[in-house]
Each structure stands twice: as C-alpha cells, then as structure tokens.
Write a structure and sequence with these properties.
With 368 residues, this protein is α/β, with parallel strands linked by helices. Helices cover 37% and strands 18% of the residues. Strands 1-3-2-4-11-5-12 form a seven-stranded mixed beta sheet, with helices on both faces. It has a five-stranded mixed beta sheet with strand order 8-7-9-6-10, with helices on both faces. Strand 7, helix 6 and strand 8 form a beta-alpha-beta unit. Helix 2 packs across helix 10 and helix 6 crosses helix 13. It starts with 18 loop residues before the first helix and ends in a 14-residue tail after the last helix. The N terminus is likely disordered.
Length: 368
C-alpha cells in the first residue's frame, strides 16, 4: 500500500454521473430510520448549553461504539441534563443529508461518505472529530472455486456498491495484482459485482458470485454459509489498522455547543474503554441493541468472529483516510479532493489528555 500524503487544492469529479452513489457508506442499503429514541434524563441532572443532541449511526457492528454507548447509558451520563436523541441510518448519503439539514448533530460514519460529504459542501458542513473503529473487512470466497489469491482472477466478486469504501479497496487491490478492471462497469480481469450486503449471502448461496470483499457482519455470514476468508484487509495496512468508522459533527453545532460535543466525545472514549475491557459484555450489549433496531439478533457463529475482527479505538487513523481517498483517485472514481480542514481533533485530544491517554494525530489535515 502506498504511503499517505496530504491531498490539497483540488475538487471532486463532477463529470462522473455516478457521483451521488460514488462514495457511500458500507453498503447496508440506502434508507434511513428516524427512531426518535430519547434517553431518560435524571430530574436533577444539570443541562449543558443545548437541550438535546441528536446523533446518528448505523445498526452495524462497526458502529458498536454508538450502539453500546447509547444502550449502556454512557453518553447520557456524560451529557447530564442534555438529552441524547438517536436515529439510525442504513447508508452514508442519507446520514450526510440528515447532518446537512440539521436533523442530526453528530454521526458515526465511514470514511468514504465523510470525504464525499465534506468535498461536495466545499468543506463547510462537517468535521471529523474522532475515530471509532478499525478493521472488520474481509475477502471471503467459495473455497471450491478459489483456493489462492491468484485464483481470484477471472472470478465474480461482490462489493457493496460502486465507489463505496470496500469497492475502492478491492479495485486498488486488483490493480496491485497487475490486473485491470473498468471501475465503472466492473468488467475486466475480475468481474466486480456491486451487490447490496443484504442480498450478498443469497447471491453467494445461489452461485451467482464466487466471493465478496465486504464488511462485518456480512463477511462472517458468508463464512457461516461455507465461505472461506482468503484475505483480511487489515493485513494490507501498516500496524493492521485502517479507519472503518469516524465520528463527524455539524460545524454549526460544534461552534455553538462545544461543551455538548466534548461530552459526547468523553462518552465515546469511555465507551471504547469499556468495550475493550469487557469484550463479552460489550458484544452482548451491541447484539441486544441490534435486536432492538432490527428485530433480530446476530447468531453466535456470526457475531463472534465478526466482533473479533473489529478494533474499537479513538484514533481517527487520519493517514489511512487520506490513503483511501488516494485509492479512489487512482481507480478513476474521484479527482484529488481538498481535505484540508476535514479534521478538528482539539476536543478529542482534550478529553484524551484528561483521561491520561495519548493524543492523536490529524495527518496534517486539521483546521488551520
């Protein structure tokens, strides 16, 4: 993988007709769900500068910091008398739209929609204020058809959506093998089949695809259907870490209510600390939250390996977001965006310092 470098003074590629779909979330559909869930606040709790803070996240394991933090009341404890209200989304564009419209103030989201949202608004709508999770993406294949990495050539491999985070990663990996694929059509030495993660397991079972480069829990669902993990994307990155989930904030809300944003970040840091100290309890809490959101918990054979492959952390791994943007440029799906100012980690570093933890780096892409 190429080393990260700052990307400056350029714009997104307006000529690509697929741009509204280009840099999306992790491929879990396109609709949003306003759960209108509001936490209970103690009568004597002291309110911060806002009456409420509206947060958004996906009902996915890669967003477990939000799932667990809400489920366990950790965020609400830090917010005191300021109410936390949560909504769930199934894809990045709808969450970015909600942030832009003021329907949510803070969101957990993948790197590609964060990049796309920031560049489309010329850097005026959001800031990345923290990391949340790393990893949880795998290439799972039919072991009867694909026995080694070189066998991927000539096969049909699914990704969640054109230009989404996993699609870009797979296209970059294909290029590094010396193979060629037309990014738009997915045709070439490998057939890249854009398939919604909800239907990918059925496509695998029917034989219409030979494998998939997908996030959890879809990867573990494929394994439960007889698939084999051929490659863990973490093995391609320095220190086996790459951003899969960030925390973003609406700039107007950050400017007006920094105390509320700081409280949410404190809750996120404490939630990640609790998750890492109590993995079994945290996994059960996340699964309970998923059951409440979707009506169905993940079975043990799916959630156990999926959970194990995700690292929950506060570091936004900014250099890897920069590199992910480079991969989209390399694939011809994006012109080099100006990411200067996409990060504002001042409040996170304040929280980390107060908690006795190491401060984190913005890879030179912070607010100047």
């Amino acid at each position: 993988m190429s080393a990260a470098r700052p990307l400056t003074t350029l714009r997104t590629l307006a000529a690509i007709a697929a741009l509204p779909l280009l840099l999306t979330a992790c491929g879990y559909g396109s609709e949003s769900t306003d759960d209108d869930k509001q936490a209970q606040v103690a009568a004597d709790a002291m309110k911060l500068s806002a009456d409420e803070v509206r947060i958004g996240y996906f009902p996915n394991l890669t967003h477990a910091t939000a799932l667990v933090g809400v489920q366990e009341g950790i965020f609400q404890k830090e917010l005191g008398g300021t109410t936390i209200k949560s909504s769930t989304f199934n894809a990045g564009p709808s969450e970015i739209e909600a942030l832009n419209s003021g329907s949510i103030d803070i969101g957990w989201i993948g790197p590609s929609p964060a990049i796309n949202g920031y560049t489309k608004a010329d850097g005026t709508n959001l800031r990345i204020i923290s990391g949340s999770a790393s990893g949880g993406v795998k290439l799972v294949v039919n072991p009867e058809k694909i026995k080694s990495l070189k066998d991927v050539k000539g096969k049909k491999i699914a990704t969640p959506q054109l230009g989404n985070t996993q699609d870009v990663a797979f296209l970059n990996w294909i290029s590094e093998q010396g193979w060629t694929v037309d990014a738009q059509s997915g045709k070439g030495d490998v057939s890249v089949v854009r398939t919604d993660n909800k239907v990918t397991p059925d496509a695998y079972k029917s034989g219409s695809i030979d494998g998939a480069w997908v996030p959890e829990p879809t990867a573990s669902k494929l394994v439960s259907e007889g698939g084999k993990v051929l490659l863990d994307e973490a093995d391609l990155w320095p220190d086996k870490k790459f951003v899969i989930t960030n925390i973003i904030v609406r700039q107007e809300f950050l400017n007006k209510h920094p105390d509320v944003v700081e409280a949410v970040l404190r809750g996120s840091v404490k939630t990640n600390e609790w998750i890492n100290a109590n993995p079994d309890q945290a996994k059960a809490s996340a699964n309970k939250a998923l059951e409440q959101e979707s009506g169905k918990a993940l079975p043990a054979e799916v959630i156990a390996p999926a959970w194990k492959s995700i690292t929950f952390l506060d570091d936004p791994l900014a250099a890897t977001l920069d590199t992910e943007a480079e991969h989209a440029v390399k694939a011809g799906l994006l012109e080099e965006p100006d990411l200067d100012g996409i990060y504002d980690l001042a409040l996170l570093n304040k929280v980390l310092k107060a908690e006795g933890k190491d401060e984190v780096d913005d890879a030179g892409l912070a607010v100047k």
